[in-house]
Design brief:
Length: about 300
């Protein structure tokens, strides 16, 4: 029994417009999890046996546009990092929020409860070199490393034990010139499901959605959403009944290509798995960690 947590950077619930790539195409995964409504701000929450689709707040009572550093720290700790920092901050963790990721994160709480978390993303050598030179961690790498996890590299990708940030390994092969094969999104989903057999929680981060939003590029957005949708559709189709799938974001962006910035739109929260009985409906990204801990606490 395990939970797969898909963190998708920079997707919100926007209006049905020509600037919203979620509503310019029918994406099978997002159609299924919304009961055919599609993902936009008019879609109604869906709560059923072992299933939840709703939107949650990413603004956290702070003015201005939500940012990745404080948004992700809030998502991965269950605490309001923006309030702690006194503002929205990103893309890297704010100094005032390091303790949330180094000592109080979802990974730390799971380990304390006797569970095994795993961050499945891999990074090329140039990432580690840059990180050591500038000492700049992302929220996910800081959380995983502080919890005693070895960050995955090239050999882990070649062994089929980890996933690259773009799912298909295409950028590693074509842009970085690394000796890895291109894989289909469905094969990547199978790799993640194999990992879920060994861990209680498997976290995967997909950031190209945020990158496409900042680029204000509809064609790029359709490409990254197409890859993501195939990946998620296969996960939903192939996951065992005792495995849960959860998806959430840190802030809006991709849903409104008319602006280059993030948005204040709510973000989607999708949960699919048996035994879901939340004490209350999640209201903000700070509720996500608690939902995960609550579900896993009920599993042997």
């Amino acid at each position: 029994m395990s939970l797969i947590f898909i963190f998708v950077d920079g997707i919100g619930m926007g209006s049905k417009s020509r600037f919203n790539p979620f509503t310019q195409h029918r994406w099978p995964f997002f159609e299924e999890v919304t009961n055919g409504q599609g993902m936009h701000n008019d879609a109604q929450p869906v709560l059923g046996e072992g299933f939840l689709y709703t939107s949650v707040d990413a603004n956290l009572g702070i003015g201005g546009l939500p940012q990745s550093g404080t948004g992700q720290a809030s998502l991965f700790s269950g605490q309001n990092a923006s309030k702690l920092a006194g503002k929205h901050f990103g893309p890297f963790p704010h100094s005032a929020t390091y303790t949330l990721l180094e000592e109080q994160s979802l990974f730390h709480q799971l380990i304390k409860a006797g569970k095994k978390p795993h961050f499945i993303n891999a990074y090329p050598d140039r990432f580690f070199e840059h990180m050591q030179r500038r000492n700049r961690w992302t929220c996910t790498t800081l959380m995983a490393s502080a919890a005693g996890q070895k960050l995955n590299g090239l050999q882990d990708v070649k062994n089929g034990d980890s996933l690259t940030a773009e799912i298909t390994q295409e950028a590693w092969r074509n842009r970085l010139g690394l000796d890895v094969d291109r894989i289909e999104p469905e094969a990547a989903a199978e790799r993640l499901l194999r990992a879920a057999e060994r861990y209680d929680l498997v976290l995967y981060e997909y950031y190209l959605t945020d990158k496409a939003g900042h680029a204000m590029d509809m064609e790029m957005s359709q490409t990254v959403l197409g890859t993501l949708d195939r990946f998620l559709t296969e996960l939903l189709r192939m996951k065992p009944d005792d495995t849960a799938l959860l998806l959430c974001s840190d802030h809006g962006n991709l849903e409104d290509l008319s602006v280059k910035t993030h948005t204040r739109n709510p973000v989607p929260l999708i949960f699919h798995g048996s035994g879901l009985a939340p004490g209350r409906m999640p209201e903000s990204i700070t509720d996500v960690s608690g939902l995960i801990l609550e579900w896993l606490a009920g599993k042997p």
